[in-house]
Amino acid sequence: MSNAQFLIYLAVMAGVTYLVRMLPLVLFRRRIKNRFILSFLHYIPIAVLTVMTVPAVFYASSSWISALAGFVVALIFAYLEKSLVQVAAFSCIGVFIAEMLIKYL
């Protein structure tokens, strides 16, 4: 790839990134008062994070069984409203224990 192509690609990516951040500010000048739209916008970050994270969870270990064990442990600790560090640590421990059980049983 030549320098000119790279600069064109870079300019297009920068323009698209800028538009994604700038357009909502230009299009929605007034405060949004519709309850449906507000509740929809409230759950967008949670949905996007879930869609990005959950598939990666099941490919992060050598076995889907240990991945499922870690996922279930994470769900339980998240439901109990533990901190993010505790949820991550205990889910890693759950995956480790499941991997050891699979390996030695």
Short précis:
With 105 residues, this protein is mainly α. The chain is 82% helix and 0% strand.
Q: What can you tell me about this protein's structure?
A:
- The chain has 105 residues and is an all-alpha fold.
- The chain has four helices and no strands.
- The chain is flat and about 60 Å long.
Topology diagram in text:
Blueprint: H1 3-27, H2 35-58, H3 64-79, H4 84-104
Return residue spans where pLDDT drops below 50 for at least 5 consecutive residues: none
Largest sheet: none
Number of helices: 4
How many β-strand runs?
0
Spatial gap, N to C terminus: 52 Å
Structural class, please?
Answer: mainly alpha
Mean pLDDT: 91
Shape from CA axes?
Answer: flat
Question: Which descriptors apply to this entry?
Answer:
single chain; 105 residues; mainly alpha; 82% helix
